[in-house]
Protein backbone atom coordinates (compact mmCIF):
# COMPACT_ATOMS: atom_id res chain seq x y z
CA UNK A 1 0.00 0.00 0.00
CA UNK A 2 2.86 2.35 0.82
CA UNK A 3 4.45 1.51 -2.52
CA UNK A 4 1.25 2.37 -4.40
CA UNK A 5 0.93 5.67 -2.50
CA UNK A 6 4.54 6.57 -3.39
CA UNK A 7 3.90 5.81 -7.06
CA UNK A 8 0.76 7.95 -7.05
CA UNK A 9 2.70 10.78 -5.42
CA UNK A 10 5.40 10.67 -8.09
CA UNK A 11 2.99 10.42 -11.03
CA UNK A 12 0.23 12.74 -9.83
CA UNK A 13 -0.24 15.14 -12.83
CA UNK A 14 -1.84 17.83 -10.67
CA UNK A 15 1.17 17.94 -8.37
CA UNK A 16 3.58 18.07 -11.33
CA UNK A 17 1.62 20.80 -13.09
CA UNK A 18 1.40 22.83 -9.89
CA UNK A 19 5.14 22.51 -9.34
CA UNK A 20 5.88 23.57 -12.92
CA UNK A 21 3.62 26.59 -12.66
CA UNK A 22 5.26 27.58 -9.37
CA UNK A 23 8.71 27.28 -10.98
CA UNK A 24 7.64 29.45 -13.92
CA UNK A 25 6.21 32.09 -11.58
CA UNK A 26 9.43 32.16 -9.56
CA UNK A 27 11.50 32.46 -12.76
CA UNK A 28 9.32 35.32 -14.02
CA UNK A 29 9.64 37.13 -10.67
CA UNK A 30 13.42 36.78 -10.84
CA UNK A 31 13.49 38.12 -14.40
CA UNK A 32 11.46 41.15 -13.37
CA UNK A 33 13.88 41.96 -10.54
CA UNK A 34 17.18 41.55 -12.42
CA UNK A 35 19.11 44.14 -14.40
CA UNK A 36 18.34 47.30 -16.31
CA UNK A 37 16.06 45.81 -18.98
CA UNK A 38 15.52 47.56 -22.29
CA UNK A 39 11.72 47.56 -21.95
CA UNK A 40 11.91 49.07 -18.47
CA UNK A 41 14.14 51.89 -19.68
CA UNK A 42 12.01 52.56 -22.74
CA UNK A 43 8.84 52.67 -20.64
CA UNK A 44 10.47 55.08 -18.21
CA UNK A 45 10.06 52.66 -15.29
CA UNK A 46 13.82 52.54 -14.67
CA UNK A 47 16.18 55.44 -15.22
CA UNK A 48 19.75 55.03 -16.44
CA UNK A 49 20.93 56.06 -12.97
CA UNK A 50 19.24 52.96 -11.55
CA UNK A 51 21.05 50.45 -13.75
CA UNK A 52 22.35 47.45 -11.86
CA UNK A 53 25.96 46.18 -12.02
CA UNK A 54 27.34 44.43 -15.08
CA UNK A 55 26.67 40.91 -13.78
CA UNK A 56 22.93 41.57 -14.06
CA UNK A 57 23.13 43.83 -17.09
CA UNK A 58 24.73 41.04 -19.11
CA UNK A 59 21.43 39.14 -19.01
CA UNK A 60 19.73 41.75 -21.16
CA UNK A 61 22.36 43.89 -22.83
CA UNK A 62 23.48 42.98 -26.35
CA UNK A 63 26.00 45.80 -26.03
CA UNK A 64 27.68 44.18 -23.03
CA UNK A 65 27.90 40.83 -24.80
CA UNK A 66 29.32 42.42 -27.95
CA UNK A 67 31.94 44.34 -25.96
CA UNK A 68 33.14 41.24 -24.15
CA UNK A 69 33.30 39.19 -27.34
CA UNK A 70 35.34 41.89 -29.10
CA UNK A 71 37.62 42.21 -26.09
CA UNK A 72 38.29 38.47 -26.19
CA UNK A 73 39.25 38.74 -29.87
CA UNK A 74 41.64 41.65 -29.37
CA UNK A 75 45.20 40.66 -30.39
CA UNK A 76 47.69 40.38 -27.55
CA UNK A 77 50.56 42.74 -28.32
CA UNK A 78 53.01 42.55 -25.45
CA UNK A 79 55.53 44.86 -27.07
CA UNK A 80 53.04 47.71 -27.42
CA UNK A 81 51.37 46.95 -24.06
CA UNK A 82 48.08 48.31 -25.33
CA UNK A 83 44.99 47.43 -23.29
CA UNK A 84 42.20 45.79 -25.33
CA UNK A 85 39.98 48.46 -26.85
CA UNK A 86 36.89 48.46 -29.05
CA UNK A 87 36.01 51.18 -31.52
CA UNK A 88 32.55 52.62 -31.02
CA UNK A 89 31.98 52.32 -34.76
CA UNK A 90 32.62 48.57 -34.42
CA UNK A 91 29.98 48.38 -31.73
CA UNK A 92 27.44 50.18 -33.92
CA UNK A 93 28.03 47.67 -36.70
CA UNK A 94 27.65 44.70 -34.34
CA UNK A 95 24.40 45.70 -32.61
CA UNK A 96 21.49 46.53 -34.87
CA UNK A 97 19.89 49.25 -32.76
CA UNK A 98 22.24 52.25 -32.48
CA UNK A 99 19.98 53.93 -29.92
CA UNK A 100 20.17 50.80 -27.79
CA UNK A 101 23.98 50.88 -28.02
CA UNK A 102 24.14 54.51 -26.88
CA UNK A 103 21.77 53.87 -23.98
CA UNK A 104 23.48 50.71 -22.74
CA UNK A 105 26.98 52.11 -23.26
CA UNK A 106 26.07 55.14 -21.18
CA UNK A 107 24.78 52.82 -18.47
CA UNK A 108 28.04 50.84 -18.47
CA UNK A 109 30.04 54.07 -18.36
CA UNK A 110 28.10 55.40 -15.36
CA UNK A 111 28.53 52.06 -13.61
CA UNK A 112 32.33 52.47 -14.11
CA UNK A 113 32.52 49.25 -16.09
CA UNK A 114 34.01 50.93 -19.18
CA UNK A 115 35.63 54.23 -20.15
CA UNK A 116 35.19 56.00 -23.48
CA UNK A 117 38.16 57.82 -25.05
CA UNK A 118 38.19 60.37 -27.86
CA UNK A 119 40.78 59.37 -30.45
CA UNK A 120 42.99 62.00 -32.06
CA UNK A 121 42.14 61.25 -35.70
CA UNK A 122 40.44 64.42 -36.82
CA UNK A 123 37.19 62.46 -36.94
CA UNK A 124 34.54 61.52 -34.42
CA UNK A 125 36.33 58.31 -33.38
CA UNK A 126 35.97 56.87 -29.90
CA UNK A 127 37.54 53.85 -28.23
CA UNK A 128 35.97 51.85 -25.41
CA UNK A 129 38.08 50.13 -22.75
CA UNK A 130 37.00 48.09 -19.76
CA UNK A 131 37.99 50.06 -16.67
CA UNK A 132 39.81 47.13 -15.09
CA UNK A 133 42.03 46.83 -18.18
CA UNK A 134 42.78 50.55 -18.10
CA UNK A 135 43.67 50.56 -14.40
CA UNK A 136 45.93 47.56 -14.99
CA UNK A 137 47.68 49.54 -17.70
CA UNK A 138 48.27 52.43 -15.29
CA UNK A 139 49.79 49.98 -12.81
CA UNK A 140 52.15 48.68 -15.50
CA UNK A 141 53.31 52.23 -16.19
CA UNK A 142 54.02 52.81 -12.50
CA UNK A 143 55.93 49.54 -12.26
CA UNK A 144 58.18 50.50 -15.18
CA UNK A 145 58.83 53.92 -13.65
CA UNK A 146 59.65 52.36 -10.29
CA UNK A 147 62.27 50.21 -12.00
CA UNK A 148 63.80 53.41 -13.39
CA UNK A 149 63.75 55.05 -9.94
CA UNK A 150 61.35 57.77 -11.15
CA UNK A 151 60.15 60.19 -8.45
CA UNK A 152 56.70 61.73 -7.81
CA UNK A 153 54.93 58.43 -8.55
CA UNK A 154 52.28 59.17 -5.93
CA UNK A 155 50.52 61.20 -8.62
CA UNK A 156 49.36 57.97 -10.30
CA UNK A 157 47.65 56.85 -7.12
CA UNK A 158 45.88 60.20 -6.89
CA UNK A 159 44.98 59.99 -10.58
CA UNK A 160 43.39 56.55 -10.17
CA UNK A 161 41.68 57.19 -6.85
CA UNK A 162 40.38 60.71 -7.32
CA UNK A 163 40.32 61.59 -11.03
CA UNK A 164 39.39 58.38 -12.83
CA UNK A 165 36.98 57.40 -10.09
CA UNK A 166 34.92 60.61 -10.25
CA UNK A 167 35.47 62.06 -13.74
CA UNK A 168 33.80 59.76 -16.25
CA UNK A 169 33.78 62.04 -19.30
CA UNK A 170 36.47 61.84 -22.05
CA UNK A 171 37.96 65.24 -21.13
CA UNK A 172 38.72 67.37 -18.08
CA UNK A 173 39.65 71.00 -17.43
CA UNK A 174 42.95 72.03 -15.86
CA UNK A 175 41.33 73.53 -12.76
CA UNK A 176 39.14 70.48 -12.14
CA UNK A 177 42.08 68.14 -12.70
CA UNK A 178 44.23 69.96 -10.14
CA UNK A 179 41.33 70.16 -7.71
CA UNK A 180 40.73 66.41 -7.83
CA UNK A 181 44.43 65.55 -7.65
CA UNK A 182 44.82 67.81 -4.62
CA UNK A 183 42.57 65.43 -2.69
CA UNK A 184 45.63 63.19 -2.56
CA UNK A 185 48.27 65.81 -1.83
CA UNK A 186 49.95 68.99 -3.02
CA UNK A 187 49.91 69.14 -6.82
CA UNK A 188 52.94 70.39 -8.75
CA UNK A 189 53.38 71.19 -12.43
CA UNK A 190 55.76 68.25 -12.60
CA UNK A 191 52.89 65.94 -11.65
CA UNK A 192 50.81 67.05 -14.64
CA UNK A 193 53.81 66.69 -16.94
CA UNK A 194 54.36 63.17 -15.63
CA UNK A 195 50.77 62.17 -16.46
CA UNK A 196 51.13 63.64 -19.95
CA UNK A 197 54.47 61.93 -20.60
CA UNK A 198 53.00 58.64 -19.39
CA UNK A 199 50.33 58.88 -22.08
CA UNK A 200 47.38 59.29 -19.73
CA UNK A 201 46.55 62.90 -20.63
CA UNK A 202 46.88 65.07 -23.73
CA UNK A 203 46.23 68.80 -24.07
CA UNK A 204 43.47 69.76 -26.45
CA UNK A 205 44.72 71.81 -29.39
CA UNK A 206 41.80 74.23 -29.46
CA UNK A 207 41.88 74.81 -25.69
CA UNK A 208 45.18 74.24 -23.84
CA UNK A 209 43.35 74.43 -20.50
CA UNK A 210 41.48 71.23 -21.39
CA UNK A 211 42.86 67.69 -21.48
CA UNK A 212 41.73 64.49 -23.17
CA UNK A 213 42.07 61.27 -21.22
CA UNK A 214 44.25 59.09 -23.44
CA UNK A 215 45.26 55.45 -23.92
CA UNK A 216 48.97 54.80 -23.31
CA UNK A 217 51.01 53.24 -26.13
CA UNK A 218 48.13 53.35 -28.61
CA UNK A 219 49.93 55.58 -31.14
CA UNK A 220 51.65 53.02 -33.39
CA UNK A 221 48.79 50.53 -33.25
CA UNK A 222 46.20 53.19 -34.07
CA UNK A 223 48.33 54.48 -36.94
CA UNK A 224 48.37 50.97 -38.39
CA UNK A 225 44.61 50.66 -38.04
CA UNK A 226 44.11 53.97 -39.83
CA UNK A 227 46.33 52.86 -42.70
CA UNK A 228 44.27 49.71 -43.07
CA UNK A 229 40.96 51.52 -42.75
CA UNK A 230 41.62 54.29 -45.29
CA UNK A 231 41.68 52.02 -48.39
CA UNK A 232 38.49 50.32 -47.19
CA UNK A 233 36.74 53.66 -46.78
CA UNK A 234 37.89 54.83 -50.21
CA UNK A 235 36.68 51.60 -51.77
CA UNK A 236 33.32 51.87 -50.05
CA UNK A 237 32.89 55.47 -51.23
CA UNK A 238 33.84 54.51 -54.79
CA UNK A 239 31.16 51.86 -54.93
Structure description:
The chain has 239 residues and is mainly alpha-helical. It contains twelve helices and six strands. The chain has a domain at 62-226. It has helices spanning 2-11, 13-33, 38-42, 54-57, 62-73, 88-94, 98-110, 131-147, 154-164, 174-181, 189-197, 219-238; strands at 86-87, 114-118, 126-130, 171-173, 201-203, 210-213. InterPro entries: STK19-like. It comes from Capsella rubella. This is Serine/threonine-protein kinase 19. Pfam families: Stk19.
Name the features:
239 residues; mainly alpha; three-stranded antiparallel β-sheet; 12 helices; 9% strand; Serine/threonine-protein kinase 19; STK19-like
Work out the number of β strands. Answer: 6
Q: Any idea what the radius of gyration is?
A: 25 Å
Strand order of the largest sheet: 1-3-2
Report, as a whole number of angstroms, the end-to-end distance. Answer: 82 Å
**Helix fraction bin:** 55-70%
Secondary-structure-derived class: mainly alpha
Q: Shape from CA axes?
A: globular
User: Are there runs of 5+ residues with pLDDT below 50, and where?
Assistant: 5-18, 20-24, 26-60, 230-239
User: Could you tell me the strand content as a percent range?
Assistant: 5-15%
* Element-by-element helix/strand order: HHHHHEHHEEHHEHHEEH
Note the main sheet.
Answer: 3 strands, antiparallel
Task: Please state the average pLDDT score.
Answer: 75
Number of helices: 12
Pfam family, one: Stk19
Protein name: Serine/threonine-protein kinase 19
Family: Belongs to the STK19 family.
